[in-house]
Every structure is written in structure tokens, then in C-alpha cells.
Amino acid sequence: MGDLLGRQMFKDTRPDRQVARKWEDERKSDRTIGGSSIYLHNSTFAGNAIVNNSGTINDNKLTESKRDQKDEIDNFFQSSEGKSTNLFKKRQKQDISYETDEEADESDSEDSESEYLSSDTDVTKHAPLLLPSKLECFVDSYNAMSQSKKWILSSGICVEDVLFNKGKQLSVESSIHSWIIDLSYWEIKQLFTDDDWCEITEEVRELYERVAKTLSRFRNIRTTADLRKVLETTSCRNKNELFDREIHFDVEWIDHVMRRFLMYYEDPDESLKLFHLEGWYDANVWSLIIDCAFSNIRGLQTVRKDSSSIAVSRRKNRKRTQKERAKLGRRLDGILRTYNDNVEYGAIEVKSSFVQINSTERLKDRLKLSKSMHDMLVCLTHLVKSNEDKIRQLQVVGLQHSGLKLQINRMSSTKGYISVLKGEDLNEIPTQIKNIKNLFMVLISVWRAKKMVMECIEVIDEKLPDLTEEEFIQEIINGGKMINRSVTTSPPLVSISLPWSFDT
User: Which of 242, 279, 394, 491 has the most neighbouring CB atoms within 10 Å?
Assistant: First the structure.
């Protein structure tokens, strides 16, 4: 019955049926010749669109947009050669080789960790191309640099020039576009000779580890009974010594962590070995270690859970017009920020588990973290009125904790317009008390990060040398911006303006 009804409908000769069959035949013909299409009946779009009785959008035109995008980039670099000396040659194809399927499988195993991370450009294999409108800010920041203030190595190589020549060849965003040298990226290392790379890495200041003596009380711990005995029979202070927050806070913090982890190591369910969500690690592990460690720095708070960075917001809105809506800063898992004036000294990124040192998600988070740290560093340079001597003493910290693993990163600008990002060793909280020395290394790394923040705050709060009457008048005329003091002034002050991170 159904077949008979279907055949009868197909033979129907009524006008509407004839029109329907004709439309179906035309649609199939268009699909065969030119690909699938969308028919717009009585379209009335306004502004840069079709305004007629009917229109068609063919998928061939959509595929051509990618070719147009590439042609636009090529034309941009060809037409820009006259704007500055040796600025743009024809844009070369990206010289980054992506992983094959076999290499990707190998990189996902935890046994294949290497000293250097793969570049952040590797994880953006399917990311959209950087259009000329985005690259212009990278070019403008380079053109604004003073040749006399660039970082010139002993070999005569200019670091800014090397990064610029590499950055203009990349078709996806990299930390290079934000003038950041990440010491863990082997692709950046390959841009320099071994001697030049040693000179770059030597410029990163080392810190002292004074807390190590406090941990010596726990050096012979093997069991939970040993740990409980040390906590009950010894103290972090001398006998009859009153507690002084300025002196004893750090050692008291270490004792507090040890007491809490004694509970975890005595737990018959072995909760540290179980899988948990990010919130569990934040509340039960890292807030105890990180948040408590920084809690004695006056005026500083650890803002958790998707807080927008004020420093990133300032960068995004620095060219904002009245017609544009204000842009929020990048949302981070944690920010070290002052209560009163909202000055940011560090950033935190969190993951519930650790896959591999150069996993896709970790590399994405690292680029996000490095740009946020760089924006914070630029904002700090404004607080010291671009005083170069003070800028060289500034440091911003970045903490990445994934599950029970933690890596401390620090960013500073030691020479020229370049910011250097150095990642410390990756440390892990042990799930068994027999490996408790690994917990010591986690505590020491957090303590070192805390000292970096405290030293940076001291630089910000330090008063500049008194100005002469003429220098004071010139500074007021310049809207409060620091001026280059006379060479006869002791000590002479020199200013430098670090470029903002790359806009995306």
C-alpha cells in the first residue's frame, strides 16, 4: 500500500509537485557541478551582504577564504619592505615540523621526558594563521626599540633582532611574539650558538636556600612513627623562645605542612594515591603549601579560581576607544595580588593530573602563563617609572601544579627589551612517607618563589634618589614619567620601556 501511494505521488502532475521536482533536479545539478550550496529566498541582508530577491552561498567560496588569508599575509610582508630597513622579505613558510603520529604517541609516554620542551607552536597545529593586523603590533614594538638599549651579546649578536627575524616567519603565536625567551624551549635555544646561550642563561639570578636548615630535623624520617616522634619531641624554635612572626613564620609553616601530611600518610585509604578533581588538590594540598606560605607578606593575597588578571586587562585596553567595550583580562587559576592597589606579582595555573612535561595542554597553559607573567612584569616597570636599574631587579613568579606535581617559573628582564622565563625543576609530593625528601624539595621551591615576590616588593617600595629642582620640574611637565638624569648626577638614571605581550 505504501509503495503504491509513493508511486502515485511521484506521478502527481499538479503544479506544486512539478515545481518541487524541478527544484530537486536543479539542486542535485548544482551539487554535482559546484558543490553544496545554501539557497537564500528573498534575502534582505543589510551592509556588505546580498540585497536581492534570492542568493546562493557556495562552499567553494568558503574554502577560498583560507587561500585569501594566506595571500593577505604574503602581500603584507611584500608591501612592508619599504617601511623599515630589512623589515620584511616575502613571508616564508613556517619552518616548524609537526609531530608525526608515531612521534606523538612517543611523546605521550611519561618515560620520554626531555630537558627542553617542544615549542608552544607545536600545539597550535590547527590554530588560525596570524593575520597582518595581529602581526603589526609585533612589528610596531620592534620598531619602537632603541638600538642602543637592545641586548647585545659578547659575540655581537642582537637578541631582539634574532627573535624578530624568527617571529615574523611563524604563522601561529609563540612566546617569541611577546619578546619572551623561555629557557625550556629547545627551538629558541637553536637560534643561538652554545656560547651565546650560556651567556643568556647566566643572566638569570640564583637564589639562596636558607630554609634547608629547618628541614634537617626531618632528615632521618622513614615511617609515620618517626615523623610523629619528631613533631612531638622537637620544636622549630629554641627552648623558651617566644614566637616572633617575622622570624619564625616560615619554620612554623613547614611544621604545619608536616603535621597535615602525617594525617595523609596515616590514612588507610591512601587518599594521596587516588584520583581527584582540581578542587580537591586546591583545598587539601596546594592551599596548605602555597597559599599559607605567602600569607605573611603584608598586603598580599592569593586570589583563587578563575580570577581575571588586571595586568592583562590593562594591556588589552591600552588602545581602547569610547565605542569599544572594555575587555577582561585573562582568567587564571590563581593570582598573587595586593589588597589595596591591585598590583600583581605572580600567576598560578592548575590541572587535576599530570600527563607529560610537554603535553599539549601543559604547553598551552605555559604560553598562557608566560604572557600573563610578562604583562605583570610590564605593569611593575611602570610602577618604578621605567627606571632601568630597578627593572633589572624585578621578578615575577608563575606556579604550575598538576595533581601532586609542581613547577616554579620566574620571569625577569636582565638585558635589553627581552624577558627571560626560567622553569625550575619539576617536583612531586610523594604518596609514601619513605620518599618524604621529595616533599622537602616542594617546600623549598615554594619558599624560593616567596622570596622572589618579597624581593620584588622591596624594589617597588624602594624610594628613588632625590631629584634636583630642575629634574623635578621636568618630571612634572612629562606627566610624572621619569626622565634621564644628567650624567653628572650620581647615580645616573636611565629609563627603558619594555614592550607589552603579543595581542591576540
Answer: 394
The pLDDT tens digits for 186-217 are 889 999 999 999 988 876 555 455 567 778 88
Q: Which residue type, as a one-letter code, is found at position 354? A: F
**How many Cβ atoms from other residues are within 10 Å of residue 237's Cβ?**
15
pLDDT tens, 42-85?
Answer: 555 555 444 444 444 444 444 455 555 555 555 555 544 444 44
d(CA 123, CA 99): 10
C-alpha cell at 399: 606556579
Q: Quick check: helix, strand or coil at residue 347?
A: strand
40, with CB counted inside 10 A (0-12, 13-18, 19+), is middle
Closest CA to 337 of 300, 370, 308, 310: 300
φ/ψ (deg, to 5) at 304:
-105, 165
Q: Which of 128, 135, 121 is nearest to 76 (CA)?
A: 135
CA distances from 379 to 164, 292, 343 (A): 23, 26, 8
CA 305 from chain centre, in angstroms, equals 17
Helix/strand/coil percent split, the chain, to 5: 45, 15, 40
Residue type, 326: A
| Contact (CB, 8 A) for 421 and 370 | yes
Please provide the size of the chain in residues.
504
Angle at 334 between CA 418 and CA 263, to 5 degrees: 125
**Domain ranges within the chain, ordered by starting residue:** 2-63, 73-94+112-202, 220-461
Q: How far apart are CA 351 and CA 362, in angstroms?
A: 9
Residue 272 DSSP symbol: G
SS3 assignment, position 370? helix
Provide the whole-model pTM. Answer: 0.69
Residue 353 · residue 362 · CB < 8 Å: no
* Helix (H/G/I), strand (E/B), else coil: 307: strand
